[in-house]
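Anyone up for a design puzzle?
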């Protein structure tokens, strides 16, 4: 059986980390040592993704009128720009990961020199895009990154996902990796959520999708002797 693993490190950017991030995830920066250990392993492809929004992005509460423009609290219905029949309910956020700002940078502690590709996502102001593969619309899909192409071109069999945030971009990236046909592993220890209370439900979704959550050491054991 062939085994050609890829590592996908999701959105380990200043805005998702304490102490200054506008959308800081609790302990977000604490996962970097585990990520660096993963980056030292012989994965066939190592990728870092970046949330990379224009200032007028639809997910920013600041781009909507009051009273339904409270970051974290307000929801908004996004209509597929290519199909008025398809809608998605989405959460509004503080401005974050704006192209060209410090908040959009990968954290400097991350060993980026070991990464083969940086994949940017979320550039289309009209749609939210948690997954590093594509936006959530299907009929039709609006925006795709180059991630699927890279993984398929390399003949990848297994995708290991880690990073931020466990309940948003990591989750949707892992679910899409599975949909793309890869065996998919989430390195739970090397993620942190926006809402810790949401994680039992996330784990149920993983179970349904046949995605395994593993420890960092388990990932090390699987990949180290390649
Ligand atoms: C993310 C909220 C908004 C993430 C991105 O990377 O998980 N969360 N944009
Ligand atoms: Zn975002």
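Challenge accepted. My sequence:
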């Amino acid at each position: 059986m062939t085994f050609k693993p890829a590592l996908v490190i999701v959105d380990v950017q200043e805005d998702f980390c304490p102490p200054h991030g506008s959308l800081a995830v609790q302990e977000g920066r604490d996962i970097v040592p585990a990520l660096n250990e993963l980056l030292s392993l012989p994965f066939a492809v190592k990728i870092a993704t970046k949330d990379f929004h224009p200032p007028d992005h639809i997910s920013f509460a600041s781009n909507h009128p009051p009273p339904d423009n409270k970051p974290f609290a307000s929801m908004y219905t996004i209509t597929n720009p290519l199909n008025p029949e398809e809608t998605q309910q989405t959460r509004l956020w503080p401005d974050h990961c704006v192209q060209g700002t410090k908040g959009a940078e990968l954290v400097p502690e991350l060993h980026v020199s070991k990464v083969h590709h940086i994949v940017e996502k979320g550039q289309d102001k009209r749609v939210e895009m948690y997954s590093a593969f594509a936006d959530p619309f299907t009929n039709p899909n609006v925006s795709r990154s180059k991630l699927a192409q890279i993984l398929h071109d390399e003949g990848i069999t297994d995708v290991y996902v880690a990073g931020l945030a466990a309940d948003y971009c990591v989750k949707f990236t892992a679910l899409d990796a599975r949909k793309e046909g890869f065996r998919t592993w989430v390195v739970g220890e090397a993620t942190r959520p926006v809402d810790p209370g949401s994680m039992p439900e996330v784990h149920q979704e993983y179970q349904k999708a046949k995605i395994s959550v593993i420890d960092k050491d388990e990932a090390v054991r699987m990949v180290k002797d390649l």
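A detail worth pointing out: Residues 5-54+98-223 form a domain with the Rossmann fold fold (CATH 3.40.50.850).
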